[in-house]
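Researcher: Please translate sequence to structure tokens.
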Amino acid sequence: AVKTSAQYGSHIKSLLVYLNQYQLLPYERTCQLVEDLFSRTISQGTLDNWIEECFSNLESTEAEIRQALLASPVVHFDETGIRKMGKLHWLHAVGTERLTFYELHARRGKEAMLDMGILEHFTGWAVHDHWKSYFTLGCPHALCNAHHLRELIYLVEQEEQAWARSLIDLLLEAKAASEALPENCLAQDSVQCQAIYLRYDTLIQTGLAQNLPPPAAIGQKKKRGRPKQSKAKNLLDRLQEFKENVLAFLTDPLVPFDNNLGERDIRMAKTKQKISGCFRGSEGGTVFARIRGYLSTLPKNDHNILAGIQSAFGK
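Model: Translation complete:
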């Protein structure tokens, strides 16, 4: 029985939540679309209530995604800045080929990672872009070589450093060598693997020899803190110190060459920010993160997104 002058079913609720939360259509334009298509007026407050309903209904689903991520052998991590109520916050993305979890937090580092309730107890491989806070946690780490390649390409094109060109070739050769085998990796004690390690070490030493820190000026007062280094020296230090994390893909079939999956999961946040600017309410970011994590998980499992939203409304 109809109890009010106008009642809306799960189809229209799902469509509007889909447009606003997945297609990132602003509230005003979402409501305008309904009026133009169906000649019905729906207020932004009503839309907000439907989004809140969807958010509440997905609480247990989010918990299941979190638990499944904890049990995953490899998980990708990334984060990006986004503003909430005028202040910079960080949207953290945690994902696999089948799952996505988001959390908006005022911090970027360890505090946020612990609050997510994933990394503290995670024992699989964490794939990321070398944000050092990840290394404070005890799981094994693999670094994104797509990032390394971009930095190396800069050194080749802008600073004409030949060792960087050779290291690009080596990383790509190592990737091809591991992928060419049925087991998708090399044995660590194999001649081929040891040869790659040796070439890697040699190229790093060549690069370090070409990027020595500038000598201190005679009579110059020593400054506090770490001396400023060139981009090349910073990259070389990182590649040398974290060699095992850089080349983890070479000997473990589960470890990917890059963190492109994590970057794909976080990319939509920039589109959201371009459209909306920021989250203006205290709960908007939390609501968006839960719903968006669910919507990102659906196509990863070959589920229709609109149908998935409708099922969240219990239909």
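Researcher: Any highlights?
Model: The longest strand covers residues 74-84.
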